[in-house]
Request: fold
Amino acid sequence: MIIAERKPMKELLEMVSDVKRLLIVGCRGCVAVCSAGGDKEVSILSAALRLGVKRAGGEIDIHEDTLVRQCDPEYIEPLNDKGAKYDAVLSMACGVGVNFVADRCPDVNVLPALNTTFYGANLSSGEWKEMCAGCGACVLHLTGGLCPVARCAKSLSNGPCGGSQGGRCEINPDVDCIWQQIYDKLSSMNRKEELRQIMPIRDWTTAGHGGPRRRIREDLLP
Amino acid sequence: MMSGSNLENVLRSGTFAVTGELGPPKSGDMEVVRKKARILKGHVDAVNITDCQTAIVRMSSLTAGLIALSEGVEPVMQMTCRDRNRIGMQADILGASALGIKNLLCLTGDHQKFGNHPQAKGVFDMDSIQLLQMVKGMRDEKRFQCGEEIKKAEPRLFLGCAANPFADPFEFRPVRLAKKVEAGADFVQTQIIYNVEKFKKFMEIARDLGIHEKCFILAGVTPPKSLGMARYMKKFVPGLDVTDDVIQRLQDAKDQKEEGIDICVDIIKQVQDIPGVSGVHVMAIEWEEAVPEIVKRAGLSQRPEPKGIEPVLSSSGAIDEAVEKARREARLELEGELKKVKAEADASRDLLAKEKEKVASEISGLKKQVEEAKSMVSRKEAEIQKLTEELQKAKEAVSGTAAPAPVASKEAVAGVQEATVTVSSGALSAREQQVLSSLNKGLVALKEVLGLNDAQFEAMRRFLEAEFMLQLGTAVRETAQVTEAPQVQAEAPPAAVTPAPAAEPVEEERPAEEEKPQRPKEVVNLVAQGNVALHAKDFKKAVELFKKALEISPEDEKAKEGLEEARKALLEEKEAADKAVKIKEVEGLPPCPDEIDPDEWKRKWVVRFTARGNVALMKGDFETAKKEFQKALDLDPDYEKAKDGLARAEKGEDIFIPDVKPGEVEAAAPAPEEKKIEKEAAEAKEEKPAKEEAVQEKPAPPEEAKEEAVKEAPKPKAKVEISAPAGEGVGELEVAPLPKDEPPLEERAKGIPEEVYKEPCTGVIQSVTIGDGDKAITVGGETALPFHAFEGEIPNLPRTAFEVLDSPPEEWPEVLLKYYSDVVNDSAAWARKCVNEFGAQAICLSLDSTDPNGANVSSADAAQVAKKVIEAVDVPIILWGCGNAEKDTETLREITGLVENRNVCIGPLTDANYRTLGATAMAFQYPVVASTPIDVNLAKQLNILLENLGVHLDHILMDPSIGAVGYGLEYTYSVMERIRLAALTQQDEKLSPPIICNLGREVWKAKETRLPTDAELGDQEKRGVLMEAITASTLLLAGGELTVMRHPKAINLTNVLVEGML
Reply:
């Protein structure tokens, strides 16, 4: 799932400093699940902004709305008319939602309420961790299902660097060394010999370095 | 051989190799590198040049490596994957190879987090193993990473890698080394070894994997410089295993440095014995001096003769030479540049000089022209003199010869009429004719010289002709003079207007000369000069000159005139100067504060004196009033209000409030010392019903009486003619005046010094007059806070306008509507009713129906309604638009077009339409309502904008936006209060216009005025009336001067309050 977190209030208040009428639009997709941009967060943000603006001596008229998803045209279509009546629409979706609104609703001045952080999993209540980098060239079958691209500080391909100590990454003792884990995992599966293979230099075009990515499935095209 | 490097040679020869390490500086200082290289030179086979180790920016590895090479030390260039992608790295590799680098150590690199730029984007396009693969491919397969062929000079590099035997997972470390070797590593340098036992185990596995046979393994060692350093490495450097034994040895050592070197030597000796170790890599971090000693003590000081060290930049001398050469070139280039610039500068200087010359010659040319013009003038003078003399002679000749002949005189008259000097030849002698013709020629010449136009010439000729004829005989004298006189008058103005100052003296002289040819030349000249001086505004000189002229010829009219004129001018000049000085310190005024313009200050005081005068007038204190008005007039003799006031004061008229009829005053308040006429009237009425009757018989009685008249509404039509008997004087609209049993303030405050309770203000509120004639009302003008009459003057009471709508109201509650139900369909009748029955002093016509979001009545139709209303009543009218800026502009302009001769007040002007409406208002001198959202600064801003446009502040009423009680009244209150305080206490003139409060509409849209009567909320009408009256009185306390209200009872309540308090 896409993990996001709300931008700091200061940044948001600056963002809406010239806005008199604001519509906050949440998303019931990933960001609702990671408690960043669902109905509840929309209400909280709306109240916080009202207070913040008032405290700064301003005035703002805030309305709230939450869409099923902001990454599907059918859900955001009505937003073009509705959003145009506001000085700005503050989207609480991930970056995808903000972009999609910007693309599809030309009359709407859309602003991001969240920082879209990573693709991750919910470790426990209130804790999320990056698990995938969306690099477009998955090697998980070679690494015991653990991603060195997303989870190694240097995205190494051929085993742990010299900074791996006690299963921890050198950059931060709170960070696991994923190569240690890969090694352990493959060892337990009696597959550690596979790690002798040199993983060749990667092709990063699929990771976005070849320009914005796009996927087409002919069979599904209208 | 892979590269032919010295390191490769040493290792392949089987000699135990020694490599050192050189950290480039965090600067561009080449000397640092050189110095370190010289220390290491001869003691090691090659030196690693680090690539921004621990991610701290330093001189690049390639550059520092080249400097080391130039010192005769073989560099091992390090390359990390952190900072460059495959494009940059391959490019550097090509360059390094070209410049003689032969060893390359391939590393992944420390994470940027550890360095001095932790925010940097880590590249990590590949890892160290992939880098080895790539460089090997470039070297052995002559292919770039992409597969493209390197056609010439592939990089020949001896490839190294790093290995950390002490990192986890331990068993994988040799495997990983094997991968590196497989990828292309020719040699490996390990992490710093202190734990030799662990390294031995590592080597065991490595040997099992056969790594030592495929690549040279150099054991990494570092002399601990101090105990602190050892502890630091143990604790903080990841993947470094500093044993307790090492710590202990340092702890026990007398000389830690010495001990550090010993520890290092011991470790070297131990690793030398480990099979598969081909050399050591001595990393004396920032302690290069230790290396020779370590090498010596380890018995490794006999280094093989270096081979293959061929710096492309051969030595420091070469570098110096190159630098010198570059410097020379740069200097030459600079010199060339300098010469060019100099030449350019010289050229431009020459050009400048030429320009100067040119300008100088032009100036001298101009001077010459001026000189010429001057000499021309004197020449002309001389010519004129000559001509005059000639004329004199001619005259003499004529008078000497011809006998007076009536024919000739007739001819002369005829000649005058025909505008030619054609004196009949038959009547004149030959000599006379000769004289005449020469005279004619002289005249033509004179015309040319003087540049006269035909008309001027013609006129002049006629004078001369007439003069000539005069001289011919006294018989025609009078006729000629008659002819002359008007012509002189006709001629004089154009002559004076003729431009060309140089010619002026001539022109001035000419009429004099013509009129009185017998005037002495000196006088003529003096007068001419005097006139010139007069023109040049040098009045003193002019006076002198004219005086001189008069000394010579006391009767000279021209000189007299000139003298008179000059004296007058001189006097005026003096007066003006005196006045300018006086303004600063007009008598009786406090000194003008620096920030205020003296004129402005004066004006303020004019207004203030007038206000004081008005107050005195109202009190009946005519003497004071006169004095005050006189003071105002002394300052500004043209101030109409003061003039008016003075006239009244002199007449003994104490009527200042225009809507109170003299009759009423006489009836109700005959004593001039009464403070308030209206109040007095009310009191009088209460006490003496008989008098009240008298009051009611007046055509426009005071409000109390009117209210009584209307008390029986809603059947008011019958009562329009105001004839209600006194007995019925108790009705629901009537409001009893406030009791006045309090002794006056002066009495109550007796014994307390004034300054304790008085805080006089320094500013003054503008007086704005709306309406025409004796019905006009003036609001503002006070110099005290609302109702603080004891602190200053409040010349005008707050006023109320009745609101009239241009269409039947849709949402008025019945309790309000019932008073107007018979007139709601006719705005004019409605207004009339307000005036005649409720005693309205002003009407505010709300043009609600024009609202584009409502009925959207056209501007033309609305204008017709407005016109009718304006014509129906003679009280002041306020025209209040619907609030839509565009539509209001249209509507109000339409209306002003129809009623331009009535002094209506228009509004609301907002920042959106103040330009257009302000211009209209200015054109017709209408007062305007400047409307802004509740905010002091916005209100001020709009006033400034209007003033910039040309609308005077005394034509502005501020509408700061109103909230009813319970609906934001407190906001309005505080904003109004601040506006008023700024105007009065800080002299903020831009906030000094009076405030208009359109509050009826706000109150009567409140829910509380619409809920029906019930037990809990009480009577609906009473509730509404009180809400409106409380809102109004609150706003008046905050500084409102003019309210717009709806319910007659609420208005009466408010007025009674006002009257009771002032």
Notes: Chain A has two domains: 2-118, 133-204. Chain A touches chain B through 31 residues (CB under 8 Å). The mean pLDDT of chain A is 94.
